[in-house]
Amino acid sequence: MKIKQINRVVRSLVFILCVASAVWAQDPLITEIDLFVTGEMMRQRTPGISIAVVKDGKPMLVKGYGFANIEHQILVKPETIFQSGSVGKQFTAMAVMMLVEEGKVALDEKLAKYIPDVPATWSGITVRHLLTHTSGLGDYPQDFDLQRDGSEQEIFKKLQAGSLASQPGERWAYSNVGYMTLGVLIRKVSGQFYGDFLAQRVFKPLGMTTARIISEADIVHNRAAGYELVKGEIKNQTWVAPSLNTTADGALYLTVLDMIKWDEALMAGKLLKKESYEQMWSPVKLNNGNTHPYGFGWALGNVNGKKLIEHGGAWQGFKAHIARYPDNKLTVIVLANLAQTNQSRIAHGIAEVVQPDLKPKPIADPDPAFTLQTKALLEAVIAGKADLTKFTPEVQGPLKNSDQLASFIKNLGPLKSFTFTYKAEGQLGGIRYRYKVEYTEMTLSLVMLVDKQGKIAGFGLQPESGLFYENTDQKWPCCHGG
User: Fold this and answer.
1) What pLDDT digit, counting tens, does each position of 30-85 carry?
2) DSSP 404-425
3) 30: which residues sit within 8 A by CB, 6+ positions away?
4) Which residues of 254-264 are buried (b: 16+ CB within 10 A; e: fewer)?
5) 212-213 β-sheet, strand order
6) In angstroms, rounded to a whole number, what is the distance separating the alpha carbons of residues 377 and 389?
7) pTM across the whole model
8) Handedness of CA 143, 344, 463, 34 (dihedral sign)
9) CA 99, CA 322: separation in Å to the nearest integer?
């Protein structure tokens, strides 16, 4: 379907929703949320979105917008099922922590105790390292074939062939491989496939009646279709081998109704002890004593001094996000069916409508000249003309071949803005910078780590996501180093 056709459909839906809101809505706040969501759908060209807003422990809005399936003209409703992407990691972390409380797993025990046949190079990896993305395992290799099927053990064996990107505990680097490994650990320790463990120990007890592992073969009522924009035209999601839709790094079907039940459990402290939740929501400490704002399957931040616990997900033409503001007793859940949707922008925007004090205060750029230099560096990287001596050896390798990145950026249209958003002491004794990179078709984030020697030790360009963390579920063509 062409973009013009999508926009016509979305405009019609916006008109209907606005009229309905004006006539029936008793709360002007709901009308404002409707206008914000439908406006973002038009701007981001998203076919369908499902949202839930929970305030003071009660759902204040549960609603679907747009199309769950364009071909059959099926509208989104609260019962519509979307894919979780890496929002599923928090459920994997929950399963591991349940085993920890039962004394079957120890967070600081070596992985080899539970999976004896791991490579010798993995000998220093602990369960805590896997949960916090500090294992050094990195992401799936670039030559990993998403269309090739195989058993969990076959996939796991192939992933063991790669070398560590860093020593365990040395740095934080988002690792889908690490969470896939946690699924193997859960099976080894519990004797159950992690999806069965979740179904029995989490989903059923909490009343998450439609939450389950992905299956393209099963008949799944209310299942949405996933889409992606390719050269300005909407296409069905890229096919992935069935076995890769069952791994513990994020392969769940969920509705906003399921996620409301999940949020209720987190608020009430169900399933785990208070001490376990505190560990899940504490920043990871690196070997050098620095911390990174990530816990066990959750990114940690704050907005104007108020806590934010969140995570995003992206997989097979779907986006997901849960943003929990515990100090405000507010949770926003967003599920969408377009790969390019900026789901965190929608979640945070809804939160700002409900609670205006959650709108981030403007941040002054401390060094505009450095920002211009960084912008020029990014453009040079994309053009394949960057001075690689500015980067550490670990980052130089992936940057030598920028063809895939250049092709990706070419489809996004002209660069509209390059804006400073964040600067803080990072890992390796360096400084972490974050910039908002807005193209006509998509907004990205550039996260750059400059080490104490002045070398660029991390350089990641990816879809704009949550606060100060990189979500690399998708095979984005630029995400390197720490």
Assistant:
1) 999 999 999 999 988 999 999 999 999 999 999 999 999 999 999 999 999 999 99
2) HHHHHHHTT-SEEEEEEEEEEE
3) 21, 60, 61
4) bbbbbbbbbbb
5) 82-83, 252-254, 212-213
6) 12
7) 0.83
8) positive
9) 24
